[in-house]
Amino acid sequence: MNTAALPSVTELYIYYRVHDTDAAIERAHAMQHALAAHSGIRGRLLQRRDDPDTLMEIYTGITDVVAFEAALAAAVTACGLDTLIQPGAARHVERFTCV
To answer: What contacts 14, CB < 8 A, 6 or more positions away?
Structure first.
């Protein structure tokens, strides 16, 4: 099978620590709902089992990474999720491509 003709599909794994877990979960869910309405890509939100202040967002099936990441950044800012990141921490984005 010639895989060169297939579009590249990317998955994003984004993890970060928050200082108000309940508020961050609420805002992250709202952000993901709005992002799905805009992009068609539904994210998942996970909470680290041994550290409830660490959250992870997972997005799969992304074919236009540049456009999706721009929409994601705008959604994070619009819902105020970025204001709940722990001081000195950041959103860490890991990008994986299907092979």
So the answer is: 56, 57, 58, 59, 91, 92, 93, 94
